[in-house]
Amino acid sequence: MLVGMSGGVDSSVAALLLKQAGYEVVGITMLVTPPEVVPRARRLACYGEDETKELQDVERVCRHLGIECRAVDLHREYEERILGYFREEYARGRTPNPCVKCNAEIKFGLLLEACRKLGLEYDYFATGHYARVRYDEQSGRWLLLKARDSAKDQSYFLSLLSQEQLGRSLFPLGELRKAEVRKIAREHNLPVSEKEESQDFYAGDYRELLPAGKPGPIKDLGGRVLGQHDGIENYTVGQRRGLGIASGGRLYVVRIEAETNTVYVGEEKDLLTSKFYVDRVNWVARVPEVGEVVEAAVRVRYKSPELLCRLIAGVGELGAGRGLVEAAGTIRTTAGERLRGDEDATAEEDKVPVKMQVRDKEEAKALAGDEIEKSASEKEAGKALAVGEFEMKTGEASVADMAEVVEVTLLTPYRAVTPGQVAVFYEGEAVLGAGFIR
User: Which strand (E) or helix (H) includes residue 182?
Assistant: First the structure.
């Protein structure tokens, strides 16, 4: 049994409980901060903290428990996978969530690969997250469930874990409340029983991790220039403070347009959203049929409430949000009437022109064949691709690919749904799936 340990009370108690349950436990910790990174202000965090002190805390706990302790240096991988993503998203005018991505790619991914290379074979990997996992015999899938302590539930941060990852994961704190965990630590005299909690992914100001921004205009929704910004990386949807512009009323960032380097501001009512799209969805509890309407709840960021919503899997432009190149072509469909809004069109070989975003021209050719052109017919540009079966000129788009795009309709409009953040869908206590807000 490998236990991911951070030097905090939660992971330490997780290791303690597993040893008491009879497992052969090895504590592992990952090092992700290069020595030269020294934030102007420090607090407990995943990146930028004093890792020497944190490693010492892990070693003290492992000695106290009588278990082996190993450290794995992943700072290069973290720089490439997490900090690279973090910077790229801000440069695109989006607000990233590095913690969710780190869990899926680093902590439950590359860390365990590195352990195997070190000869650390394991049956399960455990962490101090507040969540639960259970195998559902009927569906044949691993379920990710909310923690019993709703105030500490961290299923949101684990929502991008694959079925394989969930199948080898244990969360010993999932049935406990934080006060119980702290009590267990004190009763067993753990060296970190009074240690404060980690608060964020970075120990300093996140802007220290970003290159200098390029100045540009701040405009109202009518296009009138109200001021200048010092880089779109310094702004996020919903932000009110620090805009540096005078106004007779409160103004908020309502849109960031990376292509023109423009920050748009408006009134609070302009932040309300009732419909949005989620890309690259990782389905957990089940995979809905393409076009299926699902009644669920969604959290649009970790601290948001659960919002009642309707989901439709596979509705939206295939590949939208993945790249910057627009391409156009035709598809053959058995549901052309739905794609075009024409109830009389039922011919199975009905050709529907479409426009989509792709990473580059080669991907466009692979998706839609030689008929791709530089511009699309405005008549049908932007129509949804995902209702009914269809095929491109040269090959097919799989149902799984289509199901990775979800249309979300909120039953009550909500404020500041932010591109780049992770949306997590729930059916009761189970995580249905999660992806990135477009």
Answer: helix 178-187
Q: How far apart are CA 181 and CA 193, in angstroms?
A: 9
What Cα–Cα distance (Å) separates residue 54 from each residue in 57, 189, 196, 283? 5, 18, 12, 34
What backbone phi and psi angles, to 5 degrees, belong to 11?
A: -65, -30
Domains, the chain, ordered by start:
2-206 (3.40.50.620), 212-266 (2.30.30.280), 271-314+404-437 (2.40.30.10), 325-397 (no CATH)
At 295-341, the pLDDT tens digits run: 999 999 999 999 999 999 987 554 433 332 334 444 444 333 333 34
The answer to whether the beta carbons of residues 46 and 99 sit under 8 Å apart is yes
- CB-based contact 198:45 (threshold 8 Å): yes
pLDDT value for 36: 82
Is 407 in contact with 425 (CB distance < 8 Å)? no
- Cβ 192 vs Cβ 185: under 8 Å: yes
Backbone angles phi, psi at 350, to 5 degrees: -60, 125
CA distances from 338 to 174, 182, 315, 342, 354 (A): 44, 56, 11, 7, 13
In sequence order, the 6+-apart residues with CB closer than 8 A to the CB of 40 are 204, 205, 208
- Roughly how many angstroms between the first and final C-alpha of the chain, as a whole number? 38
What distance lies between CA 261 and its chain's CA centroid? Answer: 24
Question: What span, in angstroms and rounded, lies between the C-alpha atoms of 128 and 58?
Answer: 13
C-alpha 81/C-alpha 373 separation (Å) is: 34
Backbone phi, psi, residue 55, to 5°: -65, -40
Residue 361 three-state SS: helix
Which H/E stretch holds residue 413? Answer: strand 406-415
pLDDT (tens digit per residue) in 10-32: 999 999 999 999 999 999 999 99
Largest CA distance in the chain: 74
Give, for 187, the enclosing helix (H) or strand (E): helix 178-187
Q: How far apart are CA 338 and CA 383, in angstroms?
A: 10
Give backbone dihedrals phi and psi of 112, rounded to 5 degrees, phi first.
Answer: -70, -35
* Sequence-ordered list of residues with C-beta below 8 angstroms from that of 301, at least 6 positions apart, any chain: 97, 418, 421, 422
Q: CB of 373 within 8 A of CB of 395?
A: no
Enter the tokens of residue 243.
């805009």
Residue ranges of the alpha helices (H) in 34-137?
A: 51-65, 75-78, 84-91, 98-102, 111-117
- 170 CB burial (10 A radius; 0-12, 13-18, 19+): buried
Task: Name the token pair of 285.
Answer: 């509890």
